[in-house]
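Consider the tokenized backbone below.
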């Protein structure tokens, strides 16, 4: 465990119980602070971006398009996920492509590391359901995934076990709270941070017992990578688009592309039952990088973009280090 300095005289209020706020509350509560986590929604969290997330913990794969800071935060976060939730699945992840996307597949291999190439037999041994579907694959053994709708309640329980308080249906104003305030409201914080924008991520939840996967499969796609992410009880999440739009619907085009691409991963997905269409708005700054903003006793943690579950633990650790030791991470923190 981390060496911490207890400061019970300084209450900590955290606004927003999504993945960013939950990790902040957990680490601060474990460090001995009097933590109250405020969430304006109810326990189902259906209005939060986290509710619609894929939950992939894939820092090596993300290195293909993300800045190095995402890899650094993501790698540290893997350690924190393992420490705090030891049952988190770390079965690795797979990247596959059809012949027409061969050039993009090879580019992906060059842009990423810590993977090994599997031939068709190796892929079939790892994921029998994909036997005969692809001639090779990239396997990233150190990566993991979580199911957001199951792991958030687990984090909330851990917060309470550490002595923190969670208040659902609590629509508070930061300026009216005492002590240290950490704003993790995501896109809702645009009332104070005008530069924030919402980036829509669409998903489809399907059910089938004809396909079994132990890890996420990423299919190289002309417009965006398709993710097929296994969940419990025969469920699979299909995602994930990144659309510069702020509505929360799912377009016909996106639905057709996601479902069609899933079918090309395995024809049995064509007989799967569609359980849910949905989308969430990911908060992003113009550079698509996360930011911890500091102004007196008010701290904002925002701009996690499409990397929320991947980097939230490391951001919480950085915030705690600043509050307790004045430690600054110049790549992430901005002080007013």
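A designed sequence for it:
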């Amino acid at each position: 465990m981390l060496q911490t300095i207890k400061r019970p005289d300084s209450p900590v209020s955290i606004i927003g119980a999504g993945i960013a706020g939950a990790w902040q509350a957990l680490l601060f509560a474990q460090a001995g602070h009097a933590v109250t986590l405020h969430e304006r929604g109810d326990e189902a969290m259906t209005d939060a971006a986290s509710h619609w997330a894929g939950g992939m913990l894939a820092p090596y794969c993300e290195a293909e398009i993300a800045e190095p800071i995402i890899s650094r935060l993501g790698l540290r976060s893997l350690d924190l996920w393992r420490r705090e939730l030891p049952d988190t699945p770390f079965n690795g992840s797979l990247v596959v492509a059809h012949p027409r996307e061969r050039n993009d597949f090879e580019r992906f291999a060059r842009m990423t590391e810590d993977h090994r190439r599997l031939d068709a037999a190796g892929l079939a041994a790892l994921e029998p359901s994909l036997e005969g579907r692809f001639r090779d694959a990239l396997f990233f053994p150190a990566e993991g995934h979580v199911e957001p709708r199951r792991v958030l309640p687990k984090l909330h329980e851990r917060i309470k076990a550490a002595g923190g308080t969670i208040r659902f249906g609590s629509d508070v104003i930061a300026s009216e709270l005492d002590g240290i305030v950490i704003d993790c409201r995501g896109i809702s914080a645009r009332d104070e941070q005008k530069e924030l924008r919402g980036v829509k991520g669409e998903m489809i939840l399907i059910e089938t017992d004809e396909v079994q996967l132990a890890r996420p499969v990423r299919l190289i796609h002309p417009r965006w990578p398709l993710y097929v992410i296994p969940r419990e009880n025969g469920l699979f999440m299909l995602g994930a688009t990144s659309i510069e739009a702020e509505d929360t619907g799912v377009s016909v085009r996106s639905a057709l592309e996601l479902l069609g691409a899933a079918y090309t991963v395995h024809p049995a997905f064509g007989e799967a039952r569609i359980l849910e269409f949905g989308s969430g708005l990911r908060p992003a700054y113009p550079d698509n990088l996360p930011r911890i903003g500091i102004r007196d006793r008010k701290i904002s943690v925002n701009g996690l973009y499409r990397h929320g579950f991947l980097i939230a633990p490391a951001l919480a650790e950085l915030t705690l280090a600043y509050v307790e030791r004045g430690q600054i991470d110049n790549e992430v923190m901005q002080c007013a």
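The chain is about 30% helix and 25% strand.
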